[in-house]
């Protein structure tokens, strides 16, 4: 993966974490155990510290950055969807940031919250635990149900399983020129189908 030391600070990736080879890590970045960092993600610890705590995932084309002296943090089991931008904020334990959402400086998305796709979370935003946050600018719409939280947790478990799959089975290769006859799908040949939580 493109990994760069800056001013004597080298990114840290726990041995049980998976960081895609196209993701970029710069400077003061700490990726904890069982984390997943997707293709083309950018973790820029060139001003402030970037932290993914245990079991967190940061998906394709996400950006994490912050101001000097600050931390941008995804807490334990945090889940950040494709294309989201996190700048100088904190994503609480077991919270979800939807695809293409933006969370700004000093915002704190509380534990077990869901921020909807494309939401814009203003600087300094705060909310109660287990809230649904939507809109631009984002506002708390209502409390999350236990069923909605369970749905989020199943998705996070899928990414934790994907971390293991990528570490053991992802292989760079040239593409085929055409699909083979009887081509299997993910879920065939012992591959667990998408959407089924691991035991």
UniProtKB/TrEMBL annotation:
EC number: 3.1.2.-
InterPro entries found in the cross-reference section: Hexapep, PaaY, Transf_Hexapept/Carb_Anhydrase, Trimer_LpxA-like_sf
Keyword annotations from UniProtKB, A to Z: Hydrolase
Pfam families found in the cross-reference section: Hexapep
SUPFAM superfamilies the record matches: Trimeric LpxA-like enzymes (SSF51161)
Region (Disordered) location: 177-199
A GO molecular-function descriptor: hydrolase activity
Enzyme class of the recorded protein, top EC level: hydrolase
Hydrolase in keyword set: yes
Superkingdom assignment: Bacteria
Protein name: Phenylacetic acid degradation protein PaaY
Organism: Pseudomonas kermanshahensis
Gene: paaY
